[in-house]
TrEMBL record:
Name this polypeptide is given: Sugar kinase
Record bears the keyword Protein transport: no
Keyword field: Kinase, Transferase
Pfam families: ROK (PF00480)
Family classification: Belongs to the ROK (NagC/XylR) family.
Annotated InterPro entries: ATPase_NBD (IPR043129), ROK (IPR000600), ROK_cs (IPR049874), WH-like_DNA-bd_sf (IPR036388), WH_DNA-bd_sf (IPR036390)
Keyword Ribonucleoprotein included in the entry's annotation: no
PROSITE patterns, A to Z: ROK
GO molecular function, one term: kinase activity
Length: 419
């Protein structure tokens, strides 16, 4: 490449780099006026004006209200056009499908939730999810879909978007979850473990963008997610945080994964239901026994409701779950030294009964330095949490990881997520 060509290439690269930065400064509200952008970027007034005009022509930015006056002439603010695209989130659980659509800033436009058994398999489950999404999209008007996020209740290879030997998802192993959504919406698709989406919701809700955090979900099963300095830590293959299948000393129960003595086989909601049914068969009296006698299948939520009513059997079950969960978390606390631990899921809805036992075990078993500033709390009671977290994941991938690769086309493509 000749000297002239090299200089032109460098100039074009600098232009794109500064343009990207300006769009992101406005999107994140770090700078929303031309003078602020100039101060943060070091670019001259003329260059800032040129770049902003370009971003407006591409449809990313637009002029907004006047900024408050500081004594002189008020500057015109800029806004990121979050409404020009949609993010689709499908949060699949063991017994439900929760779908939603958001704008490009993660504001929820609408969502819906239906009962569904994920064991029905990937084909039927994803077809049902797409029907639900299409209903929302039709109801709120056609907009470009810029990203799709799918959360699964099992291990996911994040690079390929394929579940890997998920214990409660027969038929899902190595299934190409991305393909149906890419074909339907012509947008990039990211697939992740559902707990990773929940921890992002907690990060945003607590306004802790740089937090070291552990989120443990105790629902039907047990899972966890890790934030390191505010960023998801997935590990080499995406399985970091899969605490549900660590071995618990002395435990002999068979787990759904095929191994023996896993945390989930002792502390998970399905394990507590198993133990409740055994106790009832042995003659235990409980409001749970009344449900069983009435022919009503027990759910984890029934156990936490019974705890609130002071039911002795339910209390014993939840305290057992909390104790072994606390033991497992104590190992992570010593190793990872988080600032915050969040306990979520159906069993965590038992509230202080659960939380007190978890705290006691962690403080007993962890190093004093690791627990000196540690906060242990339950998750925020937000039914839309998976949708918010999925949108946050999409926004990070779109505007922080892959933005330079699709910026010139003014709209991302499915190729972004293919390896």
């Amino acid at each position: 490449m000749g000297t002239g060509s090299t200089l032109r290439f460098a100039a074009q690269t600098d232009e794109v780099t500064s343009l990207l930065r300006i769009v992101n400064l406005v999107r994140t509200r770090e700078a929303v006026t031309r003078p602020e952008i100039g101060r943060l970027t070091g670019l001259g007034r003329g260059v800032v004006t040129q770049r902003i005009d370009h971003a407006i022509d591409m449809g990313f930015l637009e002029d907004a209200d006047l900024a408050p006056s500081t004594g002189g002439r008020s500057a015109r603010t800029l806004r990121f056009r979050a409404e020009r695209g949609r993010i689709i989130v499908c949060a699949l659980g063991a017994q439900h499908i929760h779908v939603g659509i958001t704008d490009l800033e993660g504001n929820i436009v609408d969502d819906t939730h239906v009962v569904w058994q994920i064991a029905q398999g990937p084909q039927a489950t994803l077809e049902r999810a797409i029907v639900l999404v299409d209903e929302l999209v039709t109801q709120h008007g056609e907009r470009d879909v810029w990203a799709v996020v799918v959360g699964l209740p099992g291990p996911v290879d994040f690079a390929t978007g394929r579940p890997v030997a998920p214990p409660i998802m027969p038929g899902w192993n190595e299934f190409d979850v991305r393909a149906p959504f890419e074909e339907r919406y012509e947008a990039p698709v990211w697939v992740d473990n559902d707990v990773n989406m929940l921890v992002l919701t907690e990060r945003e809700g607590r306004r802790a963008p740089h937090e070291d955090m552990i989120y443990m979900k105790i629902g039907s099963g047990v899972g966890s997610a890790l934030l390191s300095r505010g960023r998801l830590h997935r590990g080499a293959n995406g399985s970091a945080g899969d605490i549900g299948h660590v071995r618990i000393a002395g435990a002999e129960e068979q787990c759904r994964c095929g191994k023996t003595g896993c945390l989930e086989a002792v502390a998970g909601g399905w394990a507590l239901i198993r133990d409740a049914e055994r106790a009832i068969a042995d003659g235990a009296t409980s409001v749970l026994a009344d449900r069983v006698a009435a022919g009503e299948p027990l759910q984890p939520e029934h156990i936490t409701l019974a705890v609130r009513d002071g039911d002795a059997l339910a209390l014993k079950l939840v305290q057992t779950s909390a104790r072994v969960a606390g033991d497992a978390l104590a190992v992570l606390v010593n190793m990872f030294n988080p600032k915050t631990i969040i306990i979520g899921g159906a069993i965590a809805s038992a509230g202080e009964v659960m939380l007190a036992e978890v705290r006691q075990r962690i403080y007993e078993l962890s190093l004093p330095l690791a627990t000196r500033d540690l906060v242990i709390d339950t998750s925020r009671k937000d039914q839309s949490a998976p949708i918010s977290g999925g949108a946050e994941l999409a926004i990070e991938e779109l505007f922080e990881t892959t933005f330079p690769r699709w910026f010139a086309d003014a709209r991302p493509s499915p190729a972004l997520t293919r390896v």
